[in-house]
Write a structure and sequence with these properties.
The chain is an alpha/beta fold. It has helices at residues 13-24, 52-65, 75-91, 98-107, 109-117, 161-165, 176-185, 207-214; strands at residues 4-8, 28-35, 68-73, 122-124, 129-134, 139-144, 167-168, 222-226, 231-235, 258-262, 269-272, 278-289, 299-304, 312-320, 323-333, 340-345, 348-355.
Length: 360
């Protein structure tokens, strides 16, 4: 077998246990921590992710396991491909998912390059997913984790066949609870370390504040417009709002109202009722397919249009080589341009794409 494996080690418990499991399975393992972004760079003391402490935790776990540990600085590429796109998307009225872009452009492709340079055969990560080769189709499949609560297939739909061929996911067969037990059994220092919940470069969750204060994005005021065309007031800038938002609008109205759309072109934020947020149809572009090479005809799938949402029955229709239309059996709430829609056939990821702004 391809015996030498470079394991991405973030300093968290999942990637640490992944390395430990691979050692038990007989692999020759090393650890690699990617320096993508440092909270200290912007004076943030919160240690949720990407801090110097994380690098130190990964190094100490590697020492405990008796494996080599490397640190690779990909911060320049991360700023360009992930943070830059994050800012551009918000400015253009979208609500992006930077974790997906990081997986698309940084974590897998660049780690594979470094592994090859150091003569490692494979890479591995601590993601809760499964990977399987399907001899009938000749394709590598991405499948849901045994732990449904931790499944991370949604953020990995961007993986290519090449990346899947050379990546191992040892956490896909166990639960989060078992992972912590293993870490405790092996005496790993991060066995009880809390999971990171926020975007690594915005640990406080204030995306608009990050864009304005750190990146210098100018937030232009505009009109809050009710769905009948009535102007209800002025807003702080479209980067402060997302589809489905109700709180924090600063608008007094006879009943609760929500953000329906936001337009970078006009600077308007469209408001309406909760029932206006439901729709059965979305369009997506920037498509990546895993289970199939092409979509040649409509296909029955389940689909989820946000990480936190459940899958829903739908039919996906190919429009062109890089555009699909997903039609849900039942209306879905707050489908948001910039987020991903991911398609499944049972526990297999068919593929996915980026949700486009609403078509007239």
């Amino acid at each position: 077998m391809n015996n030498r494996v470079m394991t991405a080690m973030s300093g968290g418990v999942d990637s640490s246990v992944a390395a430990a499991l691979l050692l038990e399975q007989g692999y020759d393992v090393c650890g690699a921590t990617l320096r993508l972004y440092s909270n200290e760079d912007i004076g943030v003391e919160d240690k949720t992710c990407c801090s110097l402490d994380d690098v130190d935790d990964a190094r100490r776990v590697a020492y405990k396991l008796g494996i080599d540990h490397y640190v690779f600085n990909f911060s320049d590429a991360f700023r360009e491909k992930v943070i830059g796109k994050f800012a551009d998307d918000y400015i253009n009225g979208l609500t992006p998912n930077p974790c997906i872009e990081c997986n698309r452009h940084i974590k897998f492709s660049r780690l594979l390059q470094r592994a090859n340079l150091l003569e490692y055969d494979m890479i591995a990560t601590g993601h809760y997913v499964k990977r399987e080769y399907d001899s009938a189709s000749g394709r590598y499949l991405l499948k849901k984790s045994e732990d449904a609560k931790k499944d991370q297939t949604y953020v990995l739909y961007v993986l290519t066949q090449h990346e899947l061929e050379y990546t191992l996911f040892p956490m896909g067969e166990i639960t989060k609870e078992r992972a912590r037990d293993i870490a405790l059994e092996k005496g790993l220092i991060n066995a009880k370390k809390r999971d990171s919940q926020d975007i690594c470069f915005v640990p406080d969750g204030d995306y608009a504040g990050f864009l304005e204060n750190t990146l210098g994005v100018k937030s232009k005021q505009g009109d809050f417009v009710y769905k009948d065309g009535t102007v209800l007031g002025r807003h702080k800038g479209i980067i402060h709002y997302t589809v489905g938002q109700r709180k924090g609008l600063g608008i007094s109205y006879a009943h609760p109202i929500y953000v329906l759309e936001k337009s970078a072109k006009t600077g308007e934020v469209l408001l309406g009722e909760n029932e206006d947020l439901f729709t059965r149809r979305l369009y997506a572009s920037n498509i990546n397919l895993i289970a199939v090479d092409k979509l040649l005809s409509p296909m029955r799938v389940t689909a989820k249009a946000r990480y936190s949402q459940s899958e829903a029955q739908a039919v996906v229709h190919p429009i062109d080589e890089d555009t699909i239309m997903v039609e849900f059996d039942e209306p879905q709430r707050a489908i948001t341009p910039g987020q991903a829609v991911v398609l499944y056939s049972d526990d297999v990821v068919v593929g996915g794409g980026t949700i486009m702004p609403i078509r007239e």
